[in-house]
Structure formats: C-alpha cells, structure tokens
Write a structure and sequence with these properties.
Strand content: 15-25%
Distance between the termini: 121 Å
CATH class of the domain at 401-552: Alpha Beta
Order of helices and strands: HHHEEEEEEHEEHEEEHHHEHHEEHEEEHE
Helix content: 40-55%
CATH superfamily of the domain at 401-552: Reverse transcriptase/Diguanylate cyclase domain
Low-confidence stretches: 1-7, 233-237, 555-565
Oligomer: single chain
Mean pLDDT: 77
Length: 565
C-alpha cells in the first residue's frame, strides 16, 4: 500500500513536473532566441550607424578642404587661363609653379590623400601636387552622372602605382565656380587604407562580416569584425550571393537607404544591416549569422532544463525562502543603484528589510552612499572654483585673456554655423600710464575695474580683459549700425561721466578709444576680426582719442595671395 502510494505520488509529481518542464523548455528556447536576435540586431545597428557616421564625417572633412581650395582666387584664375579665357590678374599670368607648390603643401596635411589636382571641365590637368603633364587628361575621370552637377562626390575604386607600389584609390571631386558658372573641379585621390583603419578600429560589439563596396560592387574594405581578418571579395559562394541578392532586390532602396534584410543560406538565418553613404554611390553591409548566435543560447537552455529535472524539488522548496529573504532585498539594492546610475543622485537610500543581515548590509551601503554624496558635492565645488580661477580675471571679475579667446572662438563658430552677423570690439584706455603716475597703481586698478563693469553691464555678449588696459568684447546676432552706435555712445557717456574718487569733489572721467568691426559669420576667422578691431581702435586714437570707429568687413580676397610678377 505504501509503495503504491509512493508510486502514485511519484507519477503525479512526474506528470505535473514534466509537462510544465516541456512548456518551460520550449518557451525558454523561444525567448532566448528572441533575445539573442534582438541583441545581435541591436549590436549590428549600433556598429553600422557608428561606421556610417564615421565615413560621413570623413567625407565632410574632405569636402571642406576641397571647397577651400576651390574658393582660392588663384584656382579660378588658373582654370580660366588654361582654357584661353582672359586672366583676371592685371599683373600677368598665373604662376602655376606656385599653385603646384600650394597643392603639395595641402596634400601634406591629408594623411590619406595621395594627390590633389585642379581640373578643367574636360578633366584636363591644370595644376597638381603630382607630376602630371599640363592639359593631360586626368586618370581620375569619373563618369557618374551625379558628378557633373559640380557638387561633392566620391567615386569608385581603381588602382594606380605610386612610388612603384600599387595603391587602391578613390577619387573625390568638388566643383570650382565663377559665381554660378562651373569652371572645373578640385580632384583628390584618397587611399583606401583609411577605410581599412576604420574597419580595424571598429567596435567589436558585433561579430560578423563588414563590407564597404563602391558603386560597381568592388571592395573598398571588408573583413571579419572579431578577428579583423581582411576579405578579398564580397561572397565566395554563388548560391550565397544569390540568396542575398534576392532579398536585396526586394528592398526599395530609394525609400529605404538605411535598413536591414533577412535571408537564408544552407539552412541558416542571416541578417544584414545596410546603408548608403552620403555623397557617394557606395554601400555598407554588416552581416551576422543568426543561427550561429542562437546555438549558444539553445545549448544553454537544454542544460538548464536537464538540471531543472534533477533539482526541481529542492529549488522549489528553497525558492520561496530565497525570493523573500535574499532576492527581494537584492532587487531593492539594484533598483537603488540603477536609479543612482541613471540620475547621478547620491541622496537615495536603501529601505529597511525583514532580514537582520540584509538590514546590516543596507546600513553599510547607505553609509557608503552618504560618504560618496559628500565627496561628490565637495568635488563639484572644487571643480567650480577651479573653473572660476582658470577663466576669471582676478582684478575685474570678467573673463581673462584665455577665457575670452575661447568664448570668442566659439561665438565666431556659432555665427558661422548660423550665418549671422558677429561684432568684435577692442577697447584701450587713453593715456592709462598717467593714472598710475599721477594717482598711483591702486587708482589705476580702480579705473580698469570701472571700465570692465561698464562694458559688462552694457553689452550682453562676451566681455574680457585682454591684458593691461585692453579689453575685448563681442556680440553675436544681427544688429543695425544705428543700434550698435547707440550702445557705444551709451558706454562713452558712462565713461566720460566717470567715477567718484574719494579725494575728489567731482567724478574722474575715463577717456577710451574703441574699434569695432562687424561681419557675416564665416567671412573671417577670430584672429582676423580681432586684428581689424585693433586697427580700428588705433584709427580712433589717431582721430583724437576718446572716440570710436565702427567698420563693416566683407570678403574681397582669399587667404592666399598670388605673386605680382
């Protein structure tokens, strides 16, 4: 009887354990595969997007450099002269040797730049960093229709011997314009070694194969993302390529330049993240074998189910105790730590637990958090104080020379990005030495502080002390000459009214000379603007001091000056 009862109980236990175990095993495999797929796809998407951005940034850098050369007046003049148009220079012909040397110098600053050339509209060489014959048809001629727009574009891979070594190169072009008329092109040859470096340094977040292909399907760079092994071609098996190509052809790439596709090959599932590269007809692929990734999770699930069969009774008994007395308090601890990690708020504390041991642990952790919170507050205060010391002029409390330079550089960059007007001013106290000589250095310091406070209170832009009795100030945004003139006159009214000295019955005026220049952002860099403001200030001194000069600057020449002979 007892044996029958034991067998019956065993049968019931097996029935109620094996059935849930089978359901649990199947569901576990499904969930594991799903999580592995999601993680794999997320990793691929992250790496793919990072690489796309890296390549885009590289293209933008090359575009900027080439456009700078295209905007040289000498570039336009050389192309015009090469096709028989009148030279824009009254002094004579363009010095091609000088231009070639300029291109050679520009090439030195491009680590992966093999050559820089100036071409006419028929792709004939006008000038080059290399030893091309003048009027020779460039080997970089590119037939893509998008190229003929004159906009920036990067072409397809080709090979050329450089210093007796075969190099894989990519042509890049940007148009040279005389107003709206296309004159020719700036052409660069870029070494594909850059993209090899990009691949070798890519995140090992995703395992799989990475391909960067040109418009003809030729390899720019390719390799195994984990072992960094290079691949010489897209796929080795024609059936694999056919499987991929079928899925690839079903995608509307005009509407979906970035996306993912799934396909099967020899029973395995694959996912490929693809994206077009801006300013090119290239394609980027990052492929992973989903089936191989799932295998690890499947083996783990099987072992978990087998272990569960042997230990299910013991685990079930212990589970309630562990969940109530250990797991729940640990979960509370993790939740607090996750909140702290997300918010950087070290004021959070662990709650009390039913377990004496967990309460002791909570108290220790809470004490540690209190210590970290105090240290964090002190560190923030130290950093704030150090920033003030590094950026603040100790006498006036305004920006020091280094700080105003950094802020003005940022202001110029912001005005350039927004294409708005920027104004830069330079102020010098007239006959400042007389204050120190006649009244002492203390009174000289009072004069400097008075001028600093006046500028700070009447200009909402950046104000800083350039050194001694010199001040620099700047304003970003469109402002009329009348409004700017009104602001400056207000400053002069305050300065001429002066400040009260303790040993005088009347105020002491502070005459100053001010030079201000305004320009559209991007027209000039900060060094040029500051120099022009300084020149305007000196003109104000020549005009009799205690006055100001305001000038509006415009671009009428390039940064490079051609010889006159």
């Amino acid at each position: 009887m007892m044996m029958k009862l034991k067998n019956r109980i065993l049968g019931i236990l097996l029935l109620f354990i094996l059935l849930p175990l089978s359901i649990f095993g199947g569901f576990s495999i499904y969930q594991t595969n799903r999580k592995i797929d999601d993680m794999t796809e997320c990793n691929l998407a992250t790496v793919s997007e990072n690489q796309r951005i890296n390549i885009k940034n590289f293209c933008e850098d090359r575009k900027s450099e080439m456009e700078m050369v295209a905007n040289y007046a000498m570039t336009q003049a050389a192309i015009k002269e090469s096709v028989g148009e009148p030279s824009p220079y009254d002094a004579g012909k363009v010095d091609l040797e000088y231009i070639n040397n300029v291109l050679k110098e520009r090439k030195k600053y491009g680590v992966f730049v093999a050559s820089i050339s100036i071409l006419d509209k028929d792709f004939r060489v006008v000038a080059s960093s290399e030893s091309y014959e003048i009027r020779e048809i460039s080997k970089m001629k590119y037939s893509n229709e998008r190229f003929h727009t004159g906009g920036f574009i990067m072409g397809d891979v080709y090979e050329r011997n450089i210093d007796d070594e075969s190099k894989k190169l990519i042509p890049a072009y940007v148009g040279v314009y005389d107003e709206e008329r296309l004159l020719g092109y700036i052409a660069e040859e870029l070494d594909t070694a850059y993209f090899d470096e990009l691949r070798l340094n890519m995140d090992s977040l995703a395992a799989g194969t990475f391909y960067l292909l040109d418009g003809n399907g030729m390899i720019i760079t390719a390799g195994d993302t984990k072992q960094k092994k290079s691949l010489s071609h897209f796929v080795t098996d024609s059936s694999e390529r056919n499987s991929f190509q079928k899925a690839w052809d079903e995608v509307d790439h005009n509407s979906n330049p970035v996306g993912k596709i799934y396909y099967k090959y020899r029973g395995d599932s694959y996912v490929t993240y693809y994206s077009d590269v801006d300013n090119t007809n290239w394609g980027m692929r990052l492929t992973e074998n989903l089936s191989a990734q799932r295998q690890t999770g499947r083996s783990y699930t099987v072992m978990l189910c087998l272990a569960f069969v042997f230990f299910v009774l013991a685990i079930f008994i212990v589970q309630i105790f562990i969940t109530k007395n250990v797991l729940a308090p640990i979960e509370q601890i993790m939740n607090v730590f996750n909140d702290i990690k997300a918010t950087q708020d070290y004021s959070k504390r662990l709650p009390k637990s039913n377990s004496v041991e967990m309460n002791q642990l909570s108290d220790e952790i809470n004490g540690l958090l209190t210590h970290i919170e105090d240290e964090n507050i002190q560190e923030k205060e130290r950093q704030r104080h150090l920033r003030e010391l590094a950026e603040c002029d100790p006498l006036t409390g305004i920006n020091n020379k280094k700080a105003i330079e950094q802020k003005m550089l940022a202001m110029v960059q912001s005005a350039t990005d927004k294409k708005v007007r920027i104004s830069v001013g330079f102020l010098d106290i007239d006959d400042f030495k007389d204050y120190n000589t006649n009244y002492g250095h203390q009174e000289g310091d009072n004069v400097i502080k008075f001028v600093a406070n006046t500028l700070k209170e009447n200009f909402k832009g950046e104000v800083g002390r350039n050194g001694g009795d010199e001040f620099v100030f700047g304003y970003e945004g469109d402002i009329s000459k009348e409004e700017l003139d009104r602001k400056v006159k207000k400053v002069y009214d305050i300065l001429n009214k002066g400040y009260t000295r303790g040993d005088l019955l009347k105020n002491m005026s502070v005459p100053c000379s001010i030079g201000i220049v305004t320009a559209i952002g991007g027209s000039f860099d900060y060094a040029k603007l500051l120099k022009e403001a300084d020149n305007a200030m000196y003109d104000a001194k020549i005009n009799g001091k205690n006055t100001y000069v305001i000038r509006e600057l415009s671009v009428s020449y390039t940064h490079l000056t051609l010889p006159t002979n």
